[in-house]
Structure prediction request, 924 residues.
Amino acid sequence: MRNFWEQLGKIDRRIVYLFVFLGASAPLFLHVVPKFKASPEVVQAYQAIDELPAGSVVLFSIDYDAASMPELQPLLEAMLTHVFRKDLKVLMMGHWPLGLPLGQIALEKMAKRYNKKYGEDYVFLGYRPGLAAVILNMGKEIRTVFNVDYKGTPLDSLPLMRNIHNYNDIALLVGFEAGAVGDYWVQFAQARFQQKIILAATAVVWPDLYPYLQAHQIVGLIGGLRGAADYEVLVNQPGSASTGMASQTVVHILIVVFILLGNLGYYFTRTWRKPT
Amino acid sequence: MKKEIPLAITFISGFLLIVALFVPHRPFGDLEQRFNDWYIIVAGFTLILGVDSLLAHHWKIIRRRQPGAFHSMALILSFIVTLVWGVWDGLKFGNPFDPASTFLRYFYTYVFVSLQATMFSLLAFFIASAAYRAFRARTSTATLLLVAAALVMLGNVPKGYLAIPPVVAITGLLLAFHFFREGQETAETTMRIVYWGTALVILVLLYPVIQFLYHNLPAVKDWIMNVPHLGAKRGILIGVALGAVAISLRIILGIERTYLR
Amino acid sequence: MFLTLALGLLISQTTPDTLTPPPLIPLPVTHVRAYDKPNDDGGAIVVEWELSPMDSLITKYEIFRLEGSPDAEPVSAGFVLRGTTKFEDVGVQNGKPYYYFVRSWLNSEYMDSEITSEPAIASAQWFHRGRLNALIILVFFVGVLLYFLQRAKSGGELYIRRIAGLEAIDDAVGRSTELGRPILFVLGLEPISNIATLAGLAILKRVAYKAAQYGTKLIVPCFDPVVYVAAQEVTKEGYTEAGRPDLYNEGDVFFLSYDQFGYAAGVDGIMVRERPGAVFLQGYFYAESLILAETGNSIGAIQISGTTAVTQLPFFIAATDYTLIGEEMYAASAYLSKDPLSLATIKGEDLVKLIFILLFLLGSILETISLLTGADLHFLTRFFTTY
Prediction:
């Protein structure tokens, strides 16, 4: 019996990995989509976009790359759906150069779906190095940072850009964060230029940004795959995030079960060793 | 002189940046931005040094036929392919990430994205093994940590509450059993009554606790995230910020110079 | 109400013989005022107004600037969307007077507001008033530090509590030597401007010193190219201080990748191939923290981690043997060198922290009293608010 409890406290890590693999992949193959309600923070972010009058400009910042794509890409697509349906204008830029093509792919895909025209309804600015310097300079004049778009077209020749000069002309900024860029957006664009911001972050980064939401420095916070799934529910367009919810549920429960097993093993092994 | 000049540069630039924070008037107001621009230029050049170091390191391994030379060859080959393909498409389409470029369509989408996503997805496995190994109820604070972790994990997924009845029941019964045994083993009657009483209270409260958590799990998760989690986090962050001020002053005043040669 | 009035006006004007109704004329915005943007280096004027009563119908507001006098030729300064009451005009020159008015557009119809009565003149300020609180705190902080530095110079006793993670450094290097395995040092992902990276470099120096003494190989793969150059210098210095510059191998401190997960994959590969006996994860980390720490654990290395990234701390605490939490890392170089001047700054920081804790407590009590009694006791909150 003692041996059994000892084994329970020392399960080989490869067995744990096998369970996690099966738990994560099985629901994806079985296409199970659980029903759920969107969480309040995501509803708050959704409303911030929903309240914008048609024609308002929303700036999307792609601050993630392929690693966090499964979490953030479905959210980006859901948000673009919402924004284009509401006839809002989109600017897109990014601080992670290797993630920018992901933004570009999603933007082109959604623009095509909603018949949006480049230069009139959306503009892809691209990437400039400098992070803090870029954010600060954009507060004065976007053209000091991006004088041309990613294709090299001068901004002034794009109809949408003619009246856009700085944060005054941007109704809302949505940062997709897999690192620390969200802090820079808040500390520079919000604190110095009072830019209204929504941050969408991976589950790892999300707790870091929580204090900003509580201090009302950002108007919405969307975290991880769950946040993306919530947004898909709100725009009524279930996608890969909603499908991923079943996997996430199974894996979270699995981890809790493993923690419990580990503790049972630990407790009873220790009890056995106690001198009587 | 080898140390004095860098120390003087550090002091002057550090002091100027402090002044720039309080003086918006030119030439101080835009100093922070100017320094940032300089840093970008310097960092751009060091990247060349970095690439040189990487290639030299692996070239040496290949030349000496050291163990792992195959990996080094794979690295150098990938480096060349990425560089040549990227530059070629850059010249052809004006941008290697142009939607029409083969670099974006094939290399980026099918190689780079998959590799990165694979590395990140390892986290799921590692979180499971680390949680299993580390979350042991060794002390009362460790127990609190693991209970909070389990509640947040279950509260963060749509059907997490389904796991509450068995998990809480087993935990509660284990705790009650623990106190019952402690009571049995103690010789003191008062303590025995206290231990057994605790076990009884746990058993009595078990059902209402399960009921409460089953119906209010997302709210409990939000409370953990908003109150204890944020409190602890702010505490650490304020400490870090004050520590950063102290270490910055140490660097500006030249007391801390370990980063110098 | 104004909307109803406007619509009523529109209906009453529609006579039976007109086929198309006359266009809806928007009502103008009111109370337009312009002033120099405070706390800046000039070149900006803020224009504020109260919304048009028909704001929900407005297409956009256009802001016009008149240079010199109210009769000058108006120039468009920019547009804002409906619901906006503020515009920052950055197209002005310092020292010149400017007047403004706001045009409310409703499709192709518009209505102008009155021109501002007072001119606004942009100017640069020599002091940022919104940061007075930061200046007071800074001066106080520096004062406390200088006091403790003075005390340290005069030979006063300075006690610092034991930090287990730093005590374990020498043991980890020793253990690695006994096993005949190398030591791996990871400096995190942030550039050299991040203080956690600088603190990591200070620890690297100590590890290099010890590794040189024991003659153990030290591998330092770097993420940032600037950090890589600094890491080379620091490691070389550590070896030189230990009197063994001959043991320093330049190829062991190298640049690996500027890509987060490429770097994580690279470091994991080094761990699995080289099987280091001790792994140091010291710096600022992101999502790769656990990938590194778990792999380190799987090869049985003794691991000492340290970071100021609060989100990554739980991962390190779970997966490594010792963790330097937040500011413990910053204290590392002072703690390891036992230099009285460095220790003095830590003492100073502790005193300032104590004062802050007391102020936070006091602030919470005052805010609670204000909430319960309605009294205006917000002065402490106001002091700590940035503008």
